[in-house]
Design brief:
With 167 residues, the chain is an alpha+beta fold. The chain is built from 5 helices and 4 strands. The strands form 2 sheets. A two-stranded antiparallel ribbon has the order 1-2. It has a two-stranded antiparallel ribbon with strand order 3-4. α2 runs antiparallel to α4. It starts with a helix and ends with a helix.
């Protein structure tokens, strides 16, 4: 994937990639994503789903911290320090529960996403994204199909024709 799109994902979801510079043996994410740009949107949605619980907890904590000692709206109870601390702990728990990306690549014409620390929901999200990649052009993101001999790729008709003319 292009360096710009790679950097975009690293910046949008930093906690999923915080181990990417720990060396080849721990995480291959230091090398980036080993596929073309067409699967960027699949990955952006996948990582957004994985990040959602953390982002919600983070927003709740920020809101309560901002309104500590106040009634944030008419008729509301005053936000206590205990509520703020509970929200902080929930945010920390959500952050600790985030899996770590180890490797993202193409294999047999579909996306492969390897993460450490996945729960059942995250595994289901990954399985779904990998399945969708089998009908999404790896080059441009348009509808495509798996094709090829030897090296199997998922390509739209336009990119399949270009690939055939290059062979």
């Amino acid at each position: 994937m292009s360096p710009e799109l790679t950097q975009n994902l690293f910046e949008r979801y930093p906690l999923l990639f915080k181990n990417r510079h720990q060396g080849v043996h721990r995480s291959l994410m230091g090398f980036g994503f080993a596929h073309d740009d067409g699967w960027y949107n699949l990955l952006n949605v996948l990582f957004g789903l994985i990040y959602a619980d953390y982002e919600q907890a983070k927003s709740r904590y920020a809101y309560l911290r901002e309104h500590e000692g106040q009634a944030p709206y008419k008729g509301a109870d005053v936000v206590s320090a205990v509520e703020v601390e509970r929200a902080r702990l929930k945010m920390a728990s959500a952050e600790a529960a985030l899996p770590q990306a180890v490797q993202v690549k193409e294999k047999f014409g579909t996306l492969r996403v390897y993460m450490d620390g996945c729960n059942e929901a995250v595994s289901a999200y990954i399985t779904f994204a990998e399945a969708l990649s089998g009908s999404t052009c790896e080059k441009c993101g348009a509808p495509g199909r798996r094709q090829g001999r030897g090296w199997i790729r998922t390509l739209c008709d336009t990119h399949a024709k270009a690939q055939a003319s290059d062979d």
